[in-house]
Amino acid sequence: MTPRLKVWEVAPEMMQAFADFSVAQAKDGLEHSLQELVKIRASQLNGCAFCLHMHTLEARKAGESELRLLMLPAWRESPLFTARERAALAWTESLTRLSETHAPDEDYAELAFEFTPEEQVKLTMLIGIINAWNRFGAGFRAVHAGHPPVEAKEAA
Fold first, then answer.
1. Are 75 and 89 in contact (CB under 8 A)?
2. 88 and 119 in contact (C-beta within 8 Å)?
3. Strand stretches in 93-132, DSSP E
4. What is the pLDDT of residues 105-136, one digit of tens each?
5. 146 — alpha (psi -120 to 50), left (phi > 0) or beta?
6. What is the pTM of this model?
7. pLDDT of residue 3
8. What is residue 63's DSSP assignment?
């Protein structure tokens, strides 16, 4: 994978404004553990390695279990997630795959049962933000930190 563009270098003011908005949303948003699960799940669906790396580290640092992180792609089949988390994950998948799902009434009903109207807006904003970050990360091929490329490992 070859990086395509360093967005922070070519549009630093715009990227900083978006980062500031993201931080403000996170502070006024939902519980931290739920936010990280949503960010990870959307990033899994979008194939954004940069965001997956960042948010799995954040989730672990905040006390998330390795087992729940491993089971996140199969959350529907696992008893490890609460009803509130399930509603958030279903809404995350619905909005991340909007062209396929069209945000079905069943997912919204589950969301409305578990979240207040204000929380629904905050969760939807969070989903929109992580999807936008995924487009920057995956679209411009942002490389996550922490590991050398496979070619470098094989050469060693």
1. yes
2. no
3. none
4. 999 999 999 999 999 999 999 999 999 999 98
5. left
6. 0.88
7. 74
8. T
